[in-house]
Amino acid sequence: LLHVVEGGDYGYRFRLGRRGTHPFQSWNGEVPGTLPMLSGTGEAPSGIIAYESDGLPEEYFGDLLLTSWGEHRIERHTLTPRGASYGSKMTTLVQGGEDFRPVGIALAPDGSLFVSDWVKKDYNLHKHGRIWRLRWKDAPKPQRPTDIVEGAVSRHRPLREAAMRRLAALDQTRPESADGKPGTSPYTDAVTKMRLHEQCHPAAWATFYSAAYSNQLCAVLGARENDARRTIRLGALAASQLKIATMQRYFRQAIRTNRPAPVLAALFERIALVAPEEWKKGERPELDWTVFDTDDPFLAHAARRMAASAWKDGDAEASLKLPTARQRMAALLVMRSLKRKEVRELMPAWLGDADAHIRFAAVQWVAEERLTDFRNALDKVLAVEPVPRELFEGYLAALNALDDKSRPDNWAEHSERHIAAMVDDATTPVHLRRLALRMLRPDYPNLSRARWNELLESDDAELRLEAVRSLRGSRLGNRAALLTKFAEDPSLGRDIRGEAMLGLDAGDEKQRATLISLAASDENGIRDDARRALAGAMLPDEDRTKLRDAVAGDDAEALARLVDPQRKPARPANTDLAAWLALLDKGQENENDRGDAVAGRRVFFSRVAACANCHQVDGRGGRIGPDLTLVAGQLSRERLIDSILDPSKEVAPQFVAYAVRKEDGTTFTGVFVGEDGARNQQFGDADGQIQRVAAEQIEDRHPVDKSLMPDNFGQTLTIGEMRDLLVFLRSRSDVE
Question: Which residues contact 186 (CB under 8 A, 6 or more apart)?
Answer without folding.
Answer: 170, 171
